[in-house]
Design goal:
By secondary structure, this protein is mostly helical. The protein has one domain (8-156): 3-Layer(aba) Sandwich (Rossmann fold), CATH 3.40.50.300. Helix content is 40%, strand content 6%. It has helices at residues 12-18, 31-40, 54-74, 84-89, 91-101, 148-156; strands at residues 24-28, 79-83. The protein has a two-stranded parallel sheet. Helix 2 (31-40) packs across helix 3 and helix 3 runs parallel beside helix 6. The protein is globular. The model has no long low-confidence stretch (mean pLDDT 91).
Amino acid sequence: MVDKAPHNFEWLGWLTMCFPEATILHVGRAPADTCLSCFFQSFSTSRHGYSNDLVDLGRHYLYYRAMMAYWCSVLPGRIHSVCYENLVSQPETEIPALLAACGLEMEETCLSPHRTERSVLTASKTQVREPIHKASVQKWRRYEEKLQPLLDVLREGGVAV
């Protein structure tokens, strides 16, 4: 099962109790790129209201980082972390390692997820139809001047953007 909702990190304790044998995959991405992606997304619920304000978004990101550090400390070996930038630049290496962490066999189709014919109903429905690419890596730099409030919060929180 794959679910990439922004608040899944809040449910990790409950999820690991419900699915005691499951491997939790955590794909981390550069902080400023993660926040920019949320800022650009028009979420349909007020649960993501923080994403409309750069300062609130930065604070929420710091909360997420603190929660993930906590979960990794209390759930050792249950969370397999993957670096997004490595995943998109070296999919031939990263995807087999990700699958192995889940106890799954590598299949060549995993390197071409854009070719799937299954229905996709997520906010990233158009992106999953594209080949794996690096176009979003360091995308925040195009907007650096406008992102200063966000970048200030992240830096004040000790996060390298």
